Predict the structure.
Amino acid sequence: MEFASDFCLLSAVEAQPPSAATSAAAPAPPPPSNSRFSGVSSLGDLKSVLSGGNASLEATAPAGVAAALPAAGTNVVNVDFGTLAEAVPVMDIKPVSCKHCGAFASPLSELSQVTDTAGNTTCSWSCEFCGCTQALQVADMQACPATDGTSSCVVDYVIQAAPPSSTAKDTAGGAVIFAIDTSGSMCVTTEVQGAFKLRGAAADAAASLRGALRGEPLGDQRLPTQQQQQRRGGPVTYISRLQAVQAAVSAQLETMARDTPSARAGLITFSGDITVIGDAAAAAPTVVAGAALHDAHALADLGAACALTRGVGAARAALEARLFALSEGGPTALGPAAALGLAQAIACGAGSRLVVCTDGLANVGVGSLDGGGDAAPAFYEYLAGRAAQHGVIVDVVSIAGGGCDLETLGVMSDLTGGTVTRVDPLSLADNFATMLAEPLIAINVTVTLRAHRSVALRDTARRAVTNASALRSAPDAAAAPSAGAGAAEGGAAAAADALAGAAPASPAGSAAGSAAAAAAAAAIAVGNVTSETEMSFEYDIASDAAAALSAVPFQLAMEYTRPDGARCLRVSTARRPVTRDASAAAAAMHTAVVAAHGVRQSALLAREGQYAQSRAALRTWQGVVEDGLARGCDAADADRVRQRFQADAGALHAALGTAQAMEAAAGMAVEADEEGGGGGAAVAARRKNARRADDGLSITYSCKKASSKGYKG
């Protein structure tokens, strides 16, 4: 757990302005040259942009929207799942849990041991979360060794040992399956200055392709005249989307062969049918066409049967020969390719990755998005749940200029710890390198956050969390199938009950019983996590209930499966000092945590269709971050925090502004629909459908996964 301030704020006292000694902030570096906010050079400038902007977009939130947002501040808890890769003490005994609220006794717990005159020893524990006093066995004391005086502790418990190597799947990093779109639209080209020798069938067809298109008004597919080339200062080369993908995949194969030659890699291509190249060990690839493209179960069976039998070090030459022999043509059987590729990745074991690279709409076979309706979205939600259950990450890469409905496809990445990106074709190599640098850390992760009974918790989207409420990490994926991450696990509380031999408490997927009503708790199914996965909570503390406290206890229980198959429970417990002075809390702010939380919150609100609230949240959190930086908080990382917040907030604000401008042009209400704190189901559905037609709004996916580590130097 990481907190947004060194203090928990008890009351809503207004923070005092920073002193002159701390108000001088270092100048921010300029944003990227391609930013739509090129005139923004400081958080103050950004505030002006966010609060002013284009008058036609009514950037100032209506009073009803502003009133619906809880006050932003430093009472934020951040959960960094990357810490699961860190070694912590492993307890070889069962954890002790409170029979009232389910919290775990820890080295920070207050235990007592009394021996009567007859020599009988009794023990008791007054739970720091709910206040319940309960008798313990003397042996239970061993689970709570004396604290060394620190305010936090982290321990692991092994719920189930890793399976024997003879029965476990090969999980040494799993495999990477590249599913490559080779439909006709992948021939669209991008102009690059300079003369390049291109490899592959696409290069052989380039001259005839451009000749055929020379007289058609197809933008960047047309050759400029010789005079235009001369005015531009030299020769140019036209790189097709497929050639850009070939180069990017080739670069990753080269890196894998050099750094991890035993890791496995496979290729699948899709257009009007599917071609399974695998690791190119077979003399000829397997082609799947016709009725099989409409049968999800048959596709899964075919994928599972297409084993990868050798490492990329041995397979690279054959893989690249097949890769550069690809050519474009036909429609887009994306759904069938995703189903088959996922099954192949599952067969390779936890930690495997499916990278789907496309530029167009799925329009053949199962998962076709051509006709609308709910069947296709439900299919991709099913794939997401299956991938998360088996520890497979799915990345979706859309090539800018095409439209593939990232709103629908993105759910595959959202639940599995993957990424959703829309990139220029010439940036694909860097994009692939970045995503593959984030290996899977744990699968089937569930978290339970508990706090003192005086605390009221809210999730990232500022929804109140009732005691032991079951939530989703992705509010827009609430309809994901029950096969999703953690659905069959029962959560950390159930794991602790099994370890401790106690009567089962309410599982993570259901409401808690009345016995747990005294302590604040939230249980969430997360799914797969990488080193960059984070989530956060806000909290309020009732001053009267916490008046006698000098510190507030928090506890995070994370149940997870390691890539080697071991099921573990990590318990992190911390005490945070309290204050009624908002200035003291602001002066001890960790701005990277606040900035990342604010961007995640705004993105989540946007994904729920609450665009006005999203923009209002951006402005509110910008003010909190600006205040912390002005007070000198995180001075070493101040420039990085400013630059990253400007980039993320600016991109999200611009995307929402574009969406609302389109609504206004179509005669739809822009802000009035959200008066009072939400647009309602009809507005949310309308905006979701609009996002399906505009892949530019996929920025909400990446912002929803903002990591505080990215805001640090």
